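no rush on this but wanted to send it before i forget. theres a chain ive been looking at and ive put its sequence and its fold in token form underneath. please have a look and point out which stretches look like helix strand or loop to you. thanks a lot i owe you, the record is right below:
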Amino acid sequence: MRRPELLIPASSLEVLKTAVIYGADAVYIGGEAFGLRAKAKNFSMEEMKEGIEFAHAHDVKVYVTANILAHNGDLEGVREYFKELREIKPDALIIADPGVFQIAKEVCPEIERHVSTQANNTNYATYLFWYGLGAKRVVSARELSITEIKEIREHIPDDLEIETFIHGAMCISYSGRCLLSNYLAGRDANKGACAHPCRWKYHPIEENERGTYIYNSKDLCMIEHIPDIAKAGIYSLKIEGRMKTPFYVGTVVKAYRQAIDDYFADPKLYEKRLPYYLAEVSKASHRDYTTAFYYGKPDGNQQVYTNNSYIREYDFIGMVQEDWNEETGFAWVEQRNKFSVGEEIEVMPAQGDSYAMKVTEIRNQNGEAVASAPHPQELLQVKFEKPVKKFDMLRKRPSDVK
């Protein structure tokens, strides 16, 4: 078995750096146009350049999404965009539209072309079609089972890579080809402006006055099934979430990084630590989990009918801004949510297991002792029991979570 790539989304430069530090092998990002996450912060060309340089300095790849389904008016802009990308050298472009694929092949043939899940890649003949056009990788449709993916692997060349989503939000529509948002809100999901009407509350005729969130899917989570994924011949394991926070990305990438590394080091170690991985990945906000289509066609248990809220067991309260001072025991932290002296918090280092500690001292920028950290993004000195490093995160249970 080939050790798979762990591919992580990034909505901003801060999230990209977090993903890299916490264990991503590759990161996928979107520019300010031609991607399917128009509401994400996305990257300016300068930010993209900085992000690519940072990732490459850590031996991490960067893929840029250009996976809209293009109209005539998009094509010249796409061509100019690819000319700009050619200069900053991302490792691959993620594309759904055959016309956009052809333009990329003409303008920047040296950049790998990956075929987006949006292209409905459900069989090995489709994979071979894209391979014949020069694709290096095809992202499988989320509607495929492990058995179907294995069969695809058996029918395609060894150098054609399979990428598959293993964690994150699911779409109600076939490979994301949704017209619901366009119809209800005038926002084109296939050009990046989805209003997510699948998460809205509906009142069908057969329901009572309470309604139902009939389209609202549970989140995908395959962290307990890494052996099956590896044996299926999937090369790239993709996390969904190009609108997520640094805390979400750091939490999820670290859990999957540990699970993958443990499995390839010792399958018995992986089996022993399964409860830990699942507990860790669940500390990021999420809906109930499902394995979706991997083990057969879903039934009604894959939907959340009662609400569209997230399960939130932990708050992100701060990120370490520079390495720990060994002499004083303090490190600078940027506050993200309120915490106070006397509270028990968890430190989530980029490397190694998380651990609990009690907050004993907080100082403001003037070096004065303070009882709490109530101000958003305030820089503070926090005393730590163990060494911490830049990008390590702090979290705690909200008061309403027992």
In short: Residues 343 and 363 are 15 Å apart (CA to CA). The mean pLDDT is 90. The longest strand covers residues 161-168. DSSP finds eleven helices and 19 strands in the chain.
